[in-house]
Each structure stands twice: as structure tokens, then as C-alpha cells.
Amino acid sequence: MLELAIKGSKKYYGWMTFLLVIIGIGFLFYLKQLDFGLGITGLSRDTSWGFYIANFTFLVGVAAGGVMVVLPYYLHDYKAFGKITILGEFLAISSVVMCVTFILVDLGQPMRIFNVFLYPTLHSVLFWDTIVLNGYLFLNLVIGWNVLEAERNGIHYQAWLKPLIYISIPWAVSIHTVTAFLFCGLPGRGFWMTAILAPRFLSSAFAAGPALLILLCLIIRRVTNFDPGREQIQSLAKIVAYAICINVFFFLCEVFVAFYSNIPEHMDHIKYLFIGLHGKSAYVPWMWASFSLMTIGIILTVNPFTRKNEGVLAVACVAIFFGTWIDKGLGMIAGGFTPSPLHHVNEYIPSLPEVVIALAVWATGFLILTALFKMAVGVKEEVGQ
Amino acid sequence: MDSSRRRILQLLGLSSLALTARPVFNAFAKDEHAEKPQAIIKDSENALKAKQWALVIDTRQFESEEDLEPLVDVCNEVHNVPHLSEKRHEIKWIWGEHYHNAFPGKAARFLSEEVEHKPFLVLCNHCENPPCVRACPTQATFKRESDGIVLMDFHRCIGCRFCMAACPFGARSFNYRDPRPFIKEINDKFPTRMKGVVEKCNFCAERLAEGQLPACVEVSEGKLTFGDLYDPESDVRELIKTNFTIRRKQTLGTEPSVYYIV
Tell me, what's the ipTM? Predict the structure, then answer.
């Protein structure tokens, strides 16, 4: 099926070249980082994780979000989604690739990465995160590829895939749960120490992932002969609507617990993010923008009149995608490290090289995503759906 | 044609899988008496030993930054700790903090003027339940069973900085760049570090192995006391018995081994 990804229109080649250029520029900056060290980023002694880990965390969510089309189709026999499950699986693949790349570029000694497997450490959540992420990548590759090939050949997919498909559903939940456990099990980090961190991650994942998928479906409809379908997009939109409401609700629960209990360790991080602390307030406009975007998203997706208008729905999905990205990407990591455990407020601002490297990782993901979607759509066009 | 190509690919896949068999067989074939590779600091005959090393800091005897300086300086010299002027890239093993930073949550709204203004020494607490050791995915940071020191293997560390997120005391530093050009005078007896690894206080494990007390304790003129927490006769236990001591963030359950007389 790979030949479908190689042959394409001028527009296709143009888009892929554009992505490759970004990847190339980012790679040059990464060489600089390899040479100098992570000092070229904005990271510090106090904020030792930043933009890379933030994007990693967000993209684990997008990957897990793919399950929102797989689950209704395979568990509830919701036939309409049969048409687009492959898009969910391929989105998951490219997201996990981005996740793994973000972890790699975040390492101080990336050439030692195999130490994680040489000295498997069961009490380290990072070890488990490696396992679940690679497992999820493997599952989606095997399932996506084989189901698509079967569709192309006009046969039912192999019987042995069925158990893998069922396993992939709770596995999707596990990748984001384990990723939340990276943060919420750390003593002395009040912002993350909440039992609803994993549920929060999942709710924002199930909003951001399907929101991106809707946008991708709309693009596919416009640039190819394959129509993912109006019903499919509307069903996804309802999933997004529920998930984004739950996400904001969970956050408000956090605010209540922190401020009614009045415990400084829990309040200070939220204060830092939303009103600033000790005169440091770089994240304040971003966080308000995030919650405004998510609120707009709720209004536009819950209201059936706006949801059913695909133009408006697209706007809502963009709002939700960026809103959750700021919330979980920017705010969640920087906010957890500031103030520091010694109660210093040293702000973290990503550096330019750091942002360029991150963009290149995103471009890598979209390169893979485009190639995979090209294949999927190619098969769909062939079989005439 | 197509099926034979597929067959060859399958065979290639299988044979690459077979390549991994040897290490697996080796692992199973190992007999129990075979020596497990492990990090050992060779002890000399007069090496100091304990079940859990602990440090008692008599904060009453420190009044100003100048009082801390000799302790901090000797540590930096002995351990090749670089001096980086960029605050973000700082490497610190032992340093001074205000009371409300060293003991957040323990600071009253109104404090004695003395406590409010003088610096308090902070360093790795060599916790009995170290969260950093729990977090490390490669066991590059580990709690040495023989004496409870939380150590770092600079050569195994992959630089993921999970330990830094896990440490509630801000005791760990990451080499954001090559530290070597920033070391005033290199001490050949202790390794320098490379960029991309985490480091922190090691309770002078290398000195204990030679029968010497930690460097900061040695130059403190009795303001710091070092000893075995589980030896009821030890100096540290005597001090803890006869003075009111506090520890940093005791509520987190990490059981720090550094005690402060206030």
C-alpha cells in the first residue's frame, strides 16, 4: 500500500516538501542542542521540564483520542464510524511517533536511551510509559495496516486482529493514565498532586483528539474524493462537546478544592497561572485565552444549531484544540514547576531554538500523518466509498 | 513473485529476531554464582560505615552567608562543582536559603528577626524513602543499601530529569551545558561531569570510603555533625536526643536524614 503514499499530486508533494523543510531547520537546531546541551532551551534548575514534555503530554492525549472512533465502532457496533476508524488509528500512530520524538529530544543523553531497557526499573513510571506508548504504537500499526489492506482486497480482516482491537481500547486509556501518573505521584508538587489528573488528561484528550479528527475529516473532504461523512462528523462533534464540558468541569473541581481548603501549596500554582505570583505573570493572558477558547468551544458544540453548521463547527474545533493545548501543554507543566518546591518563582519561557525543534517534531508527525492518510484515502477511493 | 518476496521478508524478520536469542540465552545460562556487575567504591581499611548516614546542622551557630561560605566552597572544590553565572544553569550541591524557602509551610507569619534573616544550609536529604530513586527509569540514582546514601551513576543517567521533578527539596542540578570550562581548579580525585546528566550531593561517599568525614562537616568546626542514625550511641543521635530538631517537609514521608537544630 505504500505506493499510494508515494504517488501524489503537485499539491501533495508541495505540502510534504514544506514539512520536510521545517523538519530540516528543526534538525539543524537539534544538532546545536546535541552539541551545546539543553542549555539552549529555556529550561532551568527550577523548571526542569518544559515545552518538549508539555507537547509530549498533549500529544499522548491526541493519540488516546483516536480510541473515540474505535470504541463506538467495535464495541457498540456503531456502523457509521467504520468508515473513519482507520483515520483514528493513523492519527494515533503519528501522535505516538511525535510523543516518542519529544521524549528523545528532551533527553540530556539521548544516546543512552537504551539504558531504559538494559536496566528495566519497575518502580519508575517512566519505564511503564515507554512500554505502554510503544505498545500502543505497535497495536495501531498492526491493526490499522491489516484492516486497511483487507478493505483494499475486499475481504474481512483476519480473525486474529479482533483480540488486538479489543486490547487497543483499554490500552488507549492506559497511555494517558500512565502519563498522568508521571506527574501526580510526585510528592511536593501541589499542582499535579490530584487524583483527578488522569481523568482530566483523558477528558481533554477526548476533546482535543476528536476535534483534530473533525478538522482532518473536513480537509479530506475538500482535497480528496473521499467523504468521511456528515453523520460521522456530527457524532464526533457530540463526543467533543461532552469531553470539553467534562474537562472544564474537572478544572473547576480543582479550583474549588484548592481555594475552599485554602492550602497555599495548592492555590499558589493556580494563582501563578491565572493572576500571577510575586510579580511574575507571563502565563496569565495565555491561561485566560485557553479558558475563553474552551468556553467558546462548549457554547458552539453543545448548541445543536451551531454544531450542525460545519463551518461553525470547524471554528469550535480549532478553539478547542488550541484551548486544550495551552491548558495542558503550556500551563500544566510550567504551572506545576512554578513556584518551585522551595517557593521561588522563576518563570520559564521557552527559547526560540526550543520552539523550532518542537515545530519540527510536529512537522514530522504531520508528515507521517499525511502519508498514512494518503494511503487510507487512496484505498477508500479505490474501493469507491 | 509477490508471494516469494513476502516470504523473503518474513524470513528476514524471523532471522533478525533470532539475532536477539543469544543475549536471552546468555541471561538464562548465567549461573547463580556468576558475579553480577555492580558499582563498588573500594573501601580502604579505615572506611567509615553506618546503617544510615545522617547529618545534624546546628543552625544556631550560623549567622550569615560568610559562615556558610567555607562549607559551600570546600564542597565545590572537592567535587568539581562548576560556577555558572547563568542562573538557569546553576549547579548546586550545598547552599544557603532563607528560612521560608528551606522550610516552606513551617514559616510563621512573624518570625524571630534572627531566623528571618539568616541563611539555612540545604543539601540532598539522603531520604530513607527517596522519591527520586523511585522515579529514575534506569537506576542511575539509587539508595546504597550498605549505608543509605542516595548516589548517582553519572555514566548511566540518560538526563530525563524525572528525579528533579520528583525531589521535593530542589536538591538536584542538571548539566545544561558542558560544566568543565567552569571549574576553577579540577580535583583529579573526583570525576567531572559531562553535559546532559543530573548531579547532587553524595554525602562525600568517596571520602567516607577513605575514612574521612564529609568535607563540609570537616571544615564546619563542629557546627555540622555526621554519624549513623541507627546507632543509639552515635553523636548525631546524642544531638537529636538532647536538642529540638526539625527536618524539611517531614509531612511528605520521605524521611530526610538531615536534621536541623533551631
Answer: 0.92
Candidates B88, B101, B254; nearest CB to A342 = B101
Nearest to B80 by CA among B181, B195, B186, B201: B186
Residue B204's closest CA among B49, B71, B78? Answer: B78
Measured between beta carbons, the chain A residues lying within 8 angstroms of B166 are: 186-187
d(CA B120, CA B235): 21
pLDDT at A43 over 90: yes
Q: Check CB contact under 8 Å for B158 and A108.
A: yes
Which residue of chain A has the CA closest to B173? A45
CA angle B143, B144, B146 (to 5 degrees): 140
Q: Which fold has domain B53-261?
A: Alpha-Beta Plaits (3.30.70)
Class of residue B166 by CB neighbours under 10 A (exposed 0-12, middle 13-18, buried 19+): buried
d(CA B99, CA B22): 57
The topology (CATH level 3) of A42-350 is: Formate dehydrogenase/DMSO reductase fold (1.20.1630)
3-state DSSP: chain A helix, strand, coil percent, rounded to 5? 80, 0, 20
Q: What is the mean pLDDT of residues B68-88?
A: 96
Instruction: Name chain A contacts of B27, Cβ cutoff 8 Å.
Output: none
Q: Which of A175, A116, A112, A171 is nearest to A143 (CA)?
A: A171
Choose among A48, A182, A343: nearest Cβ to B101. A343
pTM: 0.91
